[in-house]
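request received
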Amino acid sequence: MRRFIGVDEIEDMALGATVLGAGGGGDPYVGKLMAIEAIRKYGDVELITPDEVPDDAVVVVSQMMGAPTIMVEKICSGLEPMATYDEMVKELGVEPYAIYAVEAGGVNSTIPFILGATRRIPVVDCDLMGRAFPELQMTTLGINGVKGQPAVLADEKGNTVTVRAIDDRWLERIARQATSVMGGYTILASYMCTGRQLKDFAIPGTPTLCEKIGRTLREAREMHADPIAAVLEVTRGHRLFKGKVVDVERNTDGMFVRGRAVVAGLDDDKGRELVIEFQNENIIARADGRALCTSPDLIMSLDMESGTPVTTEGLKYGARIVVVGMPCDDQWRTPEGLAVVGPRAFGYDLDYVPVEELAATEGGR
Amino acid sequence: MRRFIGVDEIEDMALGATVLGAGGGGDPYVGKLMAIEAIRKYGDVELITPDEVPDDAVVVVSQMMGAPTIMVEKICSGLEPMATYDEMVKELGVEPYAIYAVEAGGVNSTIPFILGATRRIPVVDCDLMGRAFPELQMTTLGINGVKGQPAVLADEKGNTVTVRAIDDRWLERIARQATSVMGGYTILASYMCTGRQLKDFAIPGTPTLCEKIGRTLREAREMHADPIAAVLEVTRGHRLFKGKVVDVERNTDGMFVRGRAVVAGLDDDKGRELVIEFQNENIIARADGRALCTSPDLIMSLDMESGTPVTTEGLKYGARIVVVGMPCDDQWRTPEGLAVVGPRAFGYDLDYVPVEELAATEGGR
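response:
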């Protein structure tokens, strides 16, 4: 049965994607409005499964790169996804069969639908992370040896840049610098791959899971049920900590939003202190000198009452949150995956331990 | 009569271009060797006049961008001019009729001949500065409203980047950042324009003038004549100062080589002190609290004995030099030209006074 994504689905998807964004991936507000605007104007977007993409067809990502804090204040012109797509078509010499999302996250889950609606191209129900990560080489294509380039970047002024890099780390370096000088964030067409590669290496179903998380959260609120319990059930997540944000350090260096939040425990966690460190996404959560959850597992702050996900740029003094940990996709738990997104890849001298094991040691809190 | 540039002409041209490089444009050694290698392998390169380019034909520049100090230590792979040319052809959809140089300067005067020899494409006898300047928007095309983009950048590792900017200042910003992260310098294909625009706005004859200056200098040395007097005659230049370099501050920030040299006077200038400030190129020369020469006029250090031009990266303690000032092309002396390359464009609170007027006030020293 053909499935179409309309305004209601985008609302749920953007909310759920912000949960899987693990603190990053951007505030859903701007991206959601852009996708809704495009869908209202051009119609619903077909969501196809990876299996529906022919093996030799080409698919590309439409995404945002840079500091989400900047995108909230300096919004898009709205033309960037199409500008990058057109340059990508010129670069490849073929029209892509479909668009897909690089990651789950407030902005990057909805951007493909702007392009999909405007250009009447289907979106594939998959992504390359099953969550959000801060750097371009951090994809399931990358750990399987498929390069994420060429990439085309566009800013809101009309500048475009095409990067053909020798590997994904060089793509990350060059595109990050260009993004910085182009104003802190850019919209990209990227991660060209074949249908075969998508079936072999992408994480299927992430957009649908985002929608399901968003719908679950919305319905729990409507029925006055516990929204956090509902989120934990659908994400197989663990309640890590409950508390009040008492300090936030946030530093935008033009490339990433880096910083830490200190959360003072409430109720069962009274007297304890949790520290979350982030680089766009939440990377590590520690209390009492030990890690409760680390990348690549997902760390997410949810508003204590409404269950609304709070991204790193939305964290502020006084926010009462429940911090949850969710297991990542199994591809990230391999040596190849951990080499790129494990704690050491972010500079922490820590071995990765799955969140469910850490939670069991913690005593099933 | 058809004219060809071979190894001997390249030798003279590289030497003379370093004089017109005004301290910048790169050390001639590496660029010259690369051009000679290509000419030995593929044959001499035809040098045509701007008048020989059909009005509607397309021409492009082959050039180096970045800090010349880095290029001396981390040399090219040798493939960059061809890699950027091929991407430019793909970008434009047409084969250029000819190649030309963006500026006079040790490296940038010879790079077009690498591509010309390798691909059997003529080089046009013109440039866009009549000297060297440090930033991409500083061209006679630019002050006449012709944009220097698209531009394709390549590094020695094999990364390429295509920049399509809304104006030359954005081109400069984006390409400069990309160049910085790609390793401090890149080779570019750039300044696509038509034969008509070249005839209207380029400075004709600069490569031939470079060759003439180099030949004059070489012959003066061979005949034990005064090489500096010979250079001054052919460039309509002025002797500004004679002395010994007693201090050099040089700072490579990954984008430009900025700094200053202090020269203690000798002979007629004994007891005086000259300060040269540079940003890749020499921008201003001052003594006794007044300017002796400022951009866009050319300031050049020549070895006191041999007349060999000393670029800013070659300046060192103890060097005995004669500092000369040469009038720039008249296009730079217009309000449009001075807005882009006058002293104020480089941050100096000074009005431009032509070097010949300053020299007359100085008493014809």
